[in-house]
Amino acid sequence: MTDLIVTNAKVATVDASNSIAEAVAVTGEKITAVGRSGEIASLAGPDTRIIDAGGRAVIPGLMDGHAHMDREGLKGVFPSLEGCRSIGDVLDRIRALAAKTAPGEWIVTMPLGDPPYYWNVPGCLAENRFPTRQELDEGGPGQSQSISARSGVSGGIFCRWNRSPIQRHWTLPGYQRIPRPPPRPWNSKRTRPAS
C-alpha cells in the first residue's frame, strides 16, 4: 500500500509537456503515482502518511543541483592525479604524461587529491605541501603544465610555463584562446587576490 501522499501541491512532473500535478504518492523509496488530489487520495490506506503541502512546490529528487565543470565535465578529458601520495608520485605522473606530449604542448591534469571532492590537499601528499615550480620543472622539462584547482571558484592552480617564448595567445585543449599573461616570473601557486 502507499506509504506517503503529498496533496494540495504544485508537483513539477518534468514530463514532456512540463505539466504541474496536484499530488504524488510514494511507496517505499519510489514515486508510484502523480496526478490530481482526488485520484491520489484513493490510493491511501490506513497507515498512509498524508501531507498537505498547502500549495507549495514538490520537485523531483535533486540530490545535488550543481557540478563544477572543471571537475565533473572534464574528468574524462584530463589525466587524474588520484592516488598520488607524495610529490614524487605527482612528478612520476607528470613525467609519464610529458613522455606522451609533444614539446610545447600543455600538460593539463585534474586536481591533486581524491575525487569527487579533492578536499584532502595538500595533506594527501607526504610532504604536506604543493609541488614547487622547480619540482614541476623536473617532472616535465620544457613543457607547460597546469594542475587544476580543486574548484573553479576556490583553491589554487599550479602552472609551470615552459621557458620558450609564449605566443601572443595560448590555448588549453578544449578551451578558448586566452591572452598571454604579463611578462613576470610565475611561481608554482597562484591564488585569487584577497577581497
Account of the 3D structure:
The chain has 195 residues and is an alpha/beta fold. The protein is built from 4 helices and 13 strands. The protein has helices spanning 37-41, 69-73, 87-99, 133-139; strands at 4-7, 10-12, 20-21, 23-27, 30-35, 49-52, 57-58, 106-109, 144-147, 156-160, 169-170, 178-179, 190-191. The strands form 4 sheets. It has a 4-stranded mixed sheet with strand order 5-4-1-6. Strands 8-9-10-13 form a 4-stranded mixed sheet, covered by helices on one side. Helix 4 (133-139) links the parallel strand 8 (106-109) and strand 9. Helix 3 packs across helix 4. 23% of the residues are buried.
SSE layout:
Elements: E1 4-7, E2 10-12, E3 20-21, E4 23-27, E5 30-35, H1 37-41, E6 49-52, E7 57-58, H2 69-73, H3 87-99, E8 106-109, H4 133-139, E9 144-147, E10 156-160, E11 169-170, E12 178-179, E13 190-191
Parallel strand pairs: 1-6, 2-7, 8-9
Antiparallel strand pairs: 1-4, 2-3, 4-5, 9-10, 10-13, 11-12
Helix pairs in contact: 3-4
Quote the beta fraction: 15-25%
Strand tally = 13
Strands ordered across the widest β-sheet? 5-4-1-6
Uncertain segments of ≥5 residues (pLDDT<50)? 152-181, 183-195
Largest beta sheet, briefly? 4 strands, mixed
Gross geometry? elongated
Arithmetic mean pLDDT: 75
Gyration radius, rounded: 26 Å
The secondary-structure element order is EEEEEHEEHHEHEEEEE
Number of helices: 4
Overall helicity: 10-25%
Structural class by sheet pairing and helices: alpha/beta
Euclidean distance between termini CA atoms: 56 Å
